[in-house]
Amino acid sequence: MGKLCMRKRRLGFDIDGTITCPAAIVPFINEAFQLQLILEDLTDYDLLKVVDVPEKVFTEWYEKKEADIFALSPLSEGAKEVLLKWGKHHELIFISARGKNVLEVTKEWFINQGIGYDHLELIGSHEKVEAAKKYGVEIFFEDKYENAIEIAQECQIPVLLFDTPYNQGSLPNEVKRVFNWKEANIWVEKWFNCSVFN
């Protein structure tokens, strides 16, 4: 009976490292800079603290390769099944720090992955609070530590932080660390049921 009363919710998602595998960029870095990094080596969100090359060199390389990286990023394990299920009953709103210059690549990636969305916002920065408020997002999914805390506190919504080596640290009550999409799905299903009459 309760499930029949469940209203449509607005779910907000980061893309890179959340929907996509957080190690997606690693093979590209290894090839470009003759390294042998693995995901566990990425202990800081700022890759320049991990990859020992001049900032100008790295930035120029990234600007040339970002479209390829985004086009070829694999989905995080389990993400597609969960997103397809939620997409049948709720609004999926993707808010990414990607710039508008990769909008077409990003749209094509979603088409190729067979994942739909209600809104796709590439804001070109990590300041996601304004976009989350604009779309009335009720829960957010993120991989960047600082973003998760800021969104939770500024928007007063729960945020699920997908565990990675680069987002370790203590979390406020509004932010829940999850280790995979299966765990995220379980948490969200409970949240759906608890807020069914809200």
Task: Give an overview of the whole structure.
This protein has two domains: 2-22 and 76-194, HAD superfamily/HAD-like (Rossmann fold, 3-Layer(aba) Sandwich); 26-72, no CATH class. Strands 3-2-1-4-5-6 form a six-stranded parallel beta sheet, with helices on both faces. It contains seven helices and six strands. With 198 residues, it is an alpha/beta fold. It starts with 9 loop residues before the first strand and ends with a helix.
What proportion strand? 5-15%
Q: What is the rounded Rg? A: 17 Å
The strand order across the widest sheet is 3-2-1-4-5-6
CATH architecture of the largest domain: 3-Layer(aba) Sandwich
Count of individual beta strands: 6
- Cα-to-Cα separation, first versus last residue: 15 Å
Could you estimate the helical fraction of the residues in percent?
A: 25-40%
| Count of the separate structural domains | 2
Please supply descriptive tags for the structure shown above.
198 residues, alpha/beta, Rossmann fold
Write the layout of secondary structure elements.
Blueprint: E1 10-13, H1 26-33, H2 55-72, H3 79-87, E2 91-96, H4 103-113, E3 119-122, H5 129-134, E4 139-142, H6 145-155, E5 159-162, E6 175-178, H7 181-194
Parallel strand pairs: 1-2, 1-4, 2-3, 4-5, 5-6
What's this, in brief?
With 198 residues, the protein is of the alpha/beta class.
